[in-house]
Amino acid sequence: MEVTRQNFKDSLCPIYSAIEEADFLAIDGEFSGISDGPSVSALTNGMDTPGERYVKLRKHSMDFLLFQFGLCTFRYDQSQSKYLMKAFNFYIFPKPFSRNSPDIKFICQSSSIDFLASQGFDFNKVFRSGIPYLNQEEESQLREQYEERRSQVNGAGTPSYISPNSCKGPVNVPDEHKDFIGRVYSASCGDSCRYPKGIHVETVETEKKERFIQISKVDEEERRRMEQQKYEREQEEMNDAVGFSRVIHAVSKSGKLVVGHNMLLDVMHTIHQFYCSLPEELDDFKEVTMCVFPRLLDTKLMASTQPFKELITNTSLAELEKQLKEKPFKAPRVECSEGFQSYDTASERLHEAGYDAYITGLCFISMANYLGSFLTPPRSHISARSKLLEPFYNKLFLMRVIDIPYLNISGPDLQPKRDHVLYVTFPKEWKTSDLYQLFSAFGNIQVSWLDDTSAFVSLSQLEQVQIAVNTSQYAESYRIQTYAEYLQAKQKNTNINRKWAEDGWADASYKSAGMTSTCSRAHNR
Amino acid sequence: MEVTRQNFKDSLCPIYSAIEEADFLAIDGEFSGISDGPSVSALTNGMDTPGERYVKLRKHSMDFLLFQFGLCTFRYDQSQSKYLMKAFNFYIFPKPFSRNSPDIKFICQSSSIDFLASQGFDFNKVFRSGIPYLNQEEESQLREQYEERRSQVNGAGTPSYISPNSCKGPVNVPDEHKDFIGRVYSASCGDSCRYPKGIHVETVETEKKERFIQISKVDEEERRRMEQQKYEREQEEMNDAVGFSRVIHAVSKSGKLVVGHNMLLDVMHTIHQFYCSLPEELDDFKEVTMCVFPRLLDTKLMASTQPFKELITNTSLAELEKQLKEKPFKAPRVECSEGFQSYDTASERLHEAGYDAYITGLCFISMANYLGSFLTPPRSHISARSKLLEPFYNKLFLMRVIDIPYLNISGPDLQPKRDHVLYVTFPKEWKTSDLYQLFSAFGNIQVSWLDDTSAFVSLSQLEQVQIAVNTSQYAESYRIQTYAEYLQAKQKNTNINRKWAEDGWADASYKSAGMTSTCSRAHNR
């Protein structure tokens, strides 16, 4: 089902009940770009720690726009031994809600846009009909603005001058006009002013965006009714502005298993756009993520893990889906729910978020069911709540890290031994070939560039590490350290920075306060 | 005429001849956003100097994409006493040309995108069919890459290792494979190898993007012919990559009058995207602009200047076009050239760049002809080359500057007297009302905010300036300086910065070198 600004409100009920009844949910996002860094190789290093990778992704990827979101819900029908699915393909765009709402700027990366264009992506639908959204901070601000306006109009607040530059609130009555307005009021009420509290005041905007204050004489009952109507209208306006974020709130509140394929960026973008700016450090990100999505499963990580690793040669989504239809796997029995558009995997609408979410779900079901074949007696259906799936929970695939397969969202990350790794610094003219030559006596090596003048070099034999370090002692053009020495030096630098932060900057406290409130609120909706 | 990637090459000839035959050209651009600053009010200050405004626009507006360019050419047909026009509406997109071409990132501003969407703007056409482009530096780099590849393939260069991170060039033959390739070559030539220099080597890419080296045995004549073919193919590829920039080069080379409406941002974006990154300082920008567009005319500035100023109430493009059809003006006689799509001003396709360029041209003709009514005897047609137009040349409208109407591209800017202006600093809680209160004894004032804690305040009476400064001497919460004092303090800061720049940074020399080359080349094509 395609969901745009036009049919969003009518679709909300079906979306909520689809989430409610589902056994698990699959998601996918399409973005206006991937990496704002100079190049992917500069953005990723094979020896990145999970924390380093997170910091890079946060810095270089969050200014792109998530502009299509796929949500596919899967409900298992026991009686028919099959899944019923409902696919939603949302177009998302931060259309400014009013003059005082945030005017979002986002980056587009030509190569990503060109790629989506070649896949037939409909940009007009995004920009003309995308559903708006607010993150939690923006939502709070908007609610406060409405509250403030209400209290002002109802006479609780004090009208005040607002400087032209910040004049974004309601119309305020300048002192020099109060007298005039008072006289208009007396004149219209005259002596027959029988309504002691019977005045209804409202700011009205014409089609030409001219704003004026409308004052009506009403009796008490009428006034209450009008205020109630106005309140409801405002609530609806606010809900419209919160827009697509309501869908993510519902997913979050459901607490259900959320499946994605290579989903780290999807999760980061979803939280960043619809909840809060991402925290600076990985541990805080993990905490927020667990609040928003308490149970995640990444099919790319699952396919790269035992017992699937040996059976699956290509873990890209399209290839994975094909392989999981063949032996020893079985194509899952999934049908489209009544009244919902079905996707045909033969027609391959790859890179449409709704379709990608759908086949991600298929991959998950196939792999889950395959785990059932190891049980005695074997079972052909494994529920999304099965304990067999627990080893795969909350582990998000990490691309291009040599020895750390995943980011562990619900606990500490793996700490690979890097005893065979050397940290080498050299003149910026050096190329990979120079490194190969330098280490030619030490057998096979693996080079992970850090920047123009440094790289990690992995030796194949551990006992040669010390020899390499020793031989470098008298070298002038390059320098070799063990990975442990490198980490130590880095830790020292970080501590110095931290100390500065504690002494001088107010950043840290702000961050953790923001986190807590996000967390408690994620479950209150 | 709509021009996209699909029909661009076929349209070039008609475009070149339209420019060639024209008496003047009108242009307009549509952008993915206007201001990257926190808000327009923060971006513009009524007391900005032209230099300050330029720096702000350069900083906050150049990361947006100019994605639609309108060019309308006007040729006067003496015999029929009417203009013949040709309108071109170009869709522009920096589609990456190859794996090693720049992957441009650009910003989109939601409010601008939403506005264009509401006008029916076709984003799909931009992203799917936009014409690519290169600026001069990128073009040079590409030409060098081709040259380098040619010399390598022809055996003049030495094959060398290229590190994986920078492997973007041609396929190089690693030392360990040279022997193998040598053997293949001997085997295929065998003893009957009668072609001493008759080997043609070429890198071939299959549809699946697999690349391999194709070695063919050819005689000398055949070899030359193939090299020639290859050379021509490469030249065409390069021209395709330079793409839309070729149109701007042709406009520049023609040296013809280029008319725009409120055209400062159009000119800045055009130079930035198709020539070179904009220089840091205004004077250098003026120099580049005069190289690229030696004769500019801004219809918004013209309409805001005598004798038009008194006659025209609204200088927005759509309103101006309407007013210039009515007395004392006359709707110009303009017809669409044969074979070209005509625009109907009644159907108002405002904010399509080709249409906006067209009605900008109409406005210019009306106003130029009106100047003829002052001649004795009056003339109903004034040529685009008439001396009567000289006062309007190279003066670009400056929005929201109180006392400087235009940026003078071909000379020094106006230096308005600001003797009645005060520079006031105050606590950040202050609002405009506080400033009104502070100056309540001094009659009418005009406030131009600089930031949270400072503003310019213009007094209506000059003699009160010193009184205001004197009364502030004992104030603790705020501080008042004359505009002259403010300038002096600022100049001092700038000089300190300049000194640093000269001592430490290499920026300045790079800049002026780039400028000269841009200038000489702008006229060499």
Automatic annotation (TrEMBL), chains A, B:
EC number: 3.1.13.4
GO CC annotation terms, alphabetical: cytoplasm; nucleus
Location (main, coarse): cytoplasm
GO terms under biological process: nuclear-transcribed mRNA poly(A) tail shortening; priRNA 3'-end processing; siRNA 3'-end processing
A GO MF term: metal ion binding
Catalytic activity from the UniProt record: Exonucleolytic cleavage of poly(A) to 5'-AMP
InterPro entries in alphabetical order: CAF1_poly(A)_ribonucleases, Nucleotide-bd_a/b_plait_sf, PolyA-riboNase_RNA-binding, R3H_dom_sf, RBD_domain_sf, RNase_CAF1, RNaseH-like_sf, RNaseH_sf
Domain spans labelled Poly(A)-specific ribonuclease RNA-binding: 411-488
Cofactor or coenzyme needed: a divalent metal cation
Keywords: Cytoplasm, Exonuclease, Hydrolase, Metal-binding, Nuclease, Nucleus, RNA-binding
Compositional bias annotation for Polar residues: 153-166
First-tier enzyme category under EC: hydrolase
Subcellular localization, as worded in the UniProt entry: Cytoplasm; Nucleus
Disordered as annotated region, ranges: 148-167
Family statement: Belongs to the CAF1 family.
Protein name, as recorded: Poly(A)-specific ribonuclease PARN
Gene: PARN
